[in-house]
């Protein structure tokens, strides 16, 4: 009988061999199947390659069912393997990111499914005297009251065979019901004209359209100052891709808050795109996954995990704000979606467009060396001027004691608001104060689980760790010396800036935009509406305000602490700070009213401040490149981190030392560490880091694999591999 390899979405599994039962046509590679695995049923994907002919027949189990859904494309299968090999992750762990809940595999249209009958509901609630097998109990636990699921998805979700579900139906515990109709995914209207493009925009759009029409792999970097029309231009590439009959994927860093982007898309194409992000509800998620697999979604806007969706014929991937470090996934399979987008596009024969006003040094270097094409929009749309950037030297004109806004910034805000315009204060720090100190004994409130200070959130009357989520009430006395009223907040967070602003500008209508106050799309949309409608005079925000907003009446941006990101030894800190502050600055000024940006800084001569003031970002990046090239730091060399963590500090140290001793040696490579990781303790685990730095031409994966193979790691110690770490 025929045998097949099946990849299971489990972190420890490679492929498993299964038998095709008599009477079942052998499912082709990529088919979604249900298979038994140690007494349970699970999902899998028929994989390529030859099954092991020596595996004895008695050890093989039969494929239980084949789902009625288009098989996963070869290009996605190769992509899964590629990501697994690059990140040193098990392929099954990567496959898991490409799978959805089992019920997504049920046909979406009205079709028979099962729901709990009255007897079933009583049994579920424990109001029945009957006794149930463990398998039946699992089904009862899985199915919610009133929920309808197909037999296969129910069986898979409960981890039982389809026979159990059938048996329960026969016993009257389940009754047939119609599965809900999947939501519609409206198709974009390609006959709608786009906006009239300016001459530079037309050239850029023509190049991107040509890239999308080529139906082959290529990467284009699209740059241009904020407001130059990058989004309008790449939407033309999306239109071209759809005309080719292929699907387009747009990755955005802060998708749940991108309501303005979605509105623009809807204006351009008469329909909203499909969405994919972590806050998508379970039902919507399953329907979207299914619709993508069946080719019913033309354009999808998503977070990084959207790269793993089963598009039948992906023709274009746009990565907007490509420099954003939030494209890096730091848990589980550690990957950078910007880089993996390029790989996904290559394997799919698709065009890839990387978009940024401030591209990463990686991408700039790729463009300079000719690996990527480059398209540049030199001016703001409609002749708007770029904002004028000035530094307020904190050494010369500091804020008053205990205050954070200097007199000249206060005056500028006052003038702006008096002139009927809007102002914004930016501080990339949530909460009230980043540090709480006892004035009596000097004790500092720190997280019990992490190497981090607790951040006061005054509105919630709590101290919070921004790394592990630990929170505790603000203590009435110092926990160390018991002094009363001695705990003092040090330094500002947005809440504290808001407090100061309330005193300074009591009549101004203020709006705080931070993750506490803007938790999701609805709040983001409402904030955008209020600002556009001029119901707000002063916006006070964290990095949330930096992302892609267009506020036509905003003319002044004040950066409360421009030096904030520069502390610490991270080689990339300067690049990141320039990118963030440039992005924030870009919120100010539109065609109607020129903008002004004031940076409060203690080091106005720092290259970051100089670059922002002069606007010479190219020069800044060239200098950055000059600093990294000699030492072969990325992007002029390769870097991988091993992060060793354990609850027991000595264990972490011992494994880190063993790894250090077993470090690979060879020409063009160097191992740094072990040293405490950037967060030496995180969620109660002690962390050590080793960095492997290689010349560009060296492939790091085989070196890492061999290295890890030389060291015994006990189960209580975790070694995470982070290829291309974002900070170093
Ligand atoms: P970027 O992405 O470079 O910041 P956008 O594409 O978001 O620029 O454009 C900035 C603003 O200018 C948006 O409100 C956009 O709708 C508008 N805009 C850009 N180009 C045009 C155009 N050709 N016609 C009309 N409006 C445009
Ligand atoms: Zn913590």
UniProtKB/TrEMBL annotation:
Lineage of source species: Bacteria, Pseudomonadati, Pseudomonadota, Alphaproteobacteria, Acetobacterales
Pfam family, one: PriA_C
Cofactor binding description: Binds 2 zinc ions per subunit.
Source organism per UniProt: Teichococcus oryzae
A GO CC term assigned to this protein in UniProt: primosome complex
Ligand binding (Zn(2+) 1): 438, 441, 478, 481
Subunit composition and interactions: Component of the replication restart primosome.
Function according to Swiss-Prot or TrEMBL: Initiates the restart of stalled replication forks, which reloads the replicative helicase on sites other than the origin of replication. Recognizes and binds to abandoned replication forks and remodels them to uncover a helicase loading site. Promotes assembly of the primosome at these replication forks.
Protein name: Replication restart protein PriA
Enzyme class: isomerase
Domain of life assignment: Bacteria
GO biological process terms on file: DNA recombination; DNA replication initiation; DNA replication, synthesis of primer; double-strand break repair
Gene Ontology MF terms: 3'-5' DNA helicase activity; ATP binding; ATP hydrolysis activity; DNA binding; zinc ion binding
Reaction equation(s) it catalyzes: ATP + H2O = ADP + phosphate + H(+); Couples ATP hydrolysis with the unwinding of duplex DNA by translocating in the 3'-5' direction
């Amino acid at each position: 009988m025929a045998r097949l390899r099946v990849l299971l979405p489990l972190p420890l599994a490679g492929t498993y061999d299964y038998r095709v039962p008599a009477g079942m046509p052998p499912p082709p590679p990529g088919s979604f199947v249900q298979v038994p695995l140690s007494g349970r049923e699970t999902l899998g994907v028929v994989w390529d390659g030859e099954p092991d002919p020596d595996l004895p027949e008695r050890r093989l189990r039969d494929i239980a069912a084949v789902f009625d859904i288009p098989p996963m494309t070869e290009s996605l299968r190769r992509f899964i393997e590629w990501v697994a090999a690059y990140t040193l992750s098990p392929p099954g762990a990567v496959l898991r990111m490409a799978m959805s809940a089992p019920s997504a595999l049920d046909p979406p249209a009205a079709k028979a499914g099962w729901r709990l009958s009255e007897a079933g509901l009583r049994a579920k609630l424990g109001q029945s005297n009957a006794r149930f097998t463990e398998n039946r109990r699992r089904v009862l636990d899985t199915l919610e009251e009133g929920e309808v699921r197909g037999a296969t998805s129910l069986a898979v979700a409960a981890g039982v065979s389809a026979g159990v579900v059938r048996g329960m139906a026969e016993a009257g515990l389940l009754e047939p019901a119609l599965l809900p109709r999947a939501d519609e995914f409206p198709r974009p209207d390609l006959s709608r004209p786009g906006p009239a493009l300016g001459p530079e925009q037309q050239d850029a759009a023509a190049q991107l359209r040509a890239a999308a029409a080529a139906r082959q792999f290529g990467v284009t970097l699209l740059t241009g100052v904020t407001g130059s029309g990058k989004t309008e231009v790449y939407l033309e590439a999306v239109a071209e891709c759809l005309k080719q009959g292929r699907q387009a994927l747009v990755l955005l860093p802060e998708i749940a808050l991108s309501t303005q982007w979605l509105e623009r898309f809807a204006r351009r194409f008469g329909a909203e795109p499909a969405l994919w992000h972590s806050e998508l509800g379970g039902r919507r998620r399953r329907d979207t996954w299914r619709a993508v697999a069946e080719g019913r979604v033309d354009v999808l806007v998503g977070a990084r995990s959207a790269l793993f969706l089963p598009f039948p014929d992906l023709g274009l991937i746009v990565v907007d704000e490509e420099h954003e470090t939030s494209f890096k996934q730091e848990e589980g399979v550690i990957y950078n979606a910007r880089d993996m987008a390029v790989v996904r596009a290559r394997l799919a024969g698709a065009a890839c467009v990387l978009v940024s006003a401030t591209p990463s040094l990686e991408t700039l270097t790729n463009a300079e060396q000719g690996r990527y094409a480059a398209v540049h929009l030199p001016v703001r749309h409609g002749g708007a001027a770029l904002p004028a950037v000035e530094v307020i030297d904190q050494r010369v004109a500091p804020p008053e004691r205990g205050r954070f806004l200097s007199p000249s910034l206060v005056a500028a805000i006052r003038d702006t608001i008096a002139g009927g315009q809007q102002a914004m204060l930016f501080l990339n720090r949530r909460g009230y104060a980043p540090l709480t100190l006892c004035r009596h004994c000097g004790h500092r409130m720190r997280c019990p689980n992490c190497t981090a200070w607790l951040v006061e959130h005054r509105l919630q009357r709590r101290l919070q760790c921004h790394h592990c989520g630990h929170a505790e009430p603000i203590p009435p006395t110092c926990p160390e010396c018991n002094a009363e009223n001695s705990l003092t907040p040090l330094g500002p967070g947005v809440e504290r800036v808001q407090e100061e602003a309330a005193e300074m500008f009591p009549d101004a209508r203020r709006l705080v935009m931070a993750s506490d106050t803007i938790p999701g799309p609805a709040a983001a949309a409402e904030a955008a509406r209020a600002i556009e409608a001029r119901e707000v005079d002063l916006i006070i925000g964290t990095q949330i305000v930096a992302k892609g907003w267009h506020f036509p009446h905003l003319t002044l941006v004040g950066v409360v602490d421009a030096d904030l990101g520069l502390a610490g030894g991270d080689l990339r800190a300067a690049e990141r700070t320039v990118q963030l502050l440039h992005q924030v600055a870009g919120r100010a000024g539109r065609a109607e009213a020129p903008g002004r940006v004031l940076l409060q800084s203690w080091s106005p001569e720092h290259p970051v401040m100089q670059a922002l003031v002069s606007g010479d970002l190219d020069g800044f990046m060239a200098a950055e490149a000059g600093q990294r090239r000699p030492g072969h730091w990325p992007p002029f060399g390769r870097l991988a981190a091993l992060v060793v963590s354990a609850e027991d500090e000595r264990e972490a140290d011992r494994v880190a030392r063993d790894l250090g001793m077993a470090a690979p040696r060879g020409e063009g490579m160097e191992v740094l560490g072990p040293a405490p990781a950037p967060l030496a303790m995180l969620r109660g685990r002690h962390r050590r880091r080793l960095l492997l730095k290689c010349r560009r031409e060296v492939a790091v994966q085989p070196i890492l694999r061999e290295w890890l193979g030389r060291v015994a790691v006990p189960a209580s110690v975790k070694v995470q591999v982070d290829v291309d770490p974002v900070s170093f």
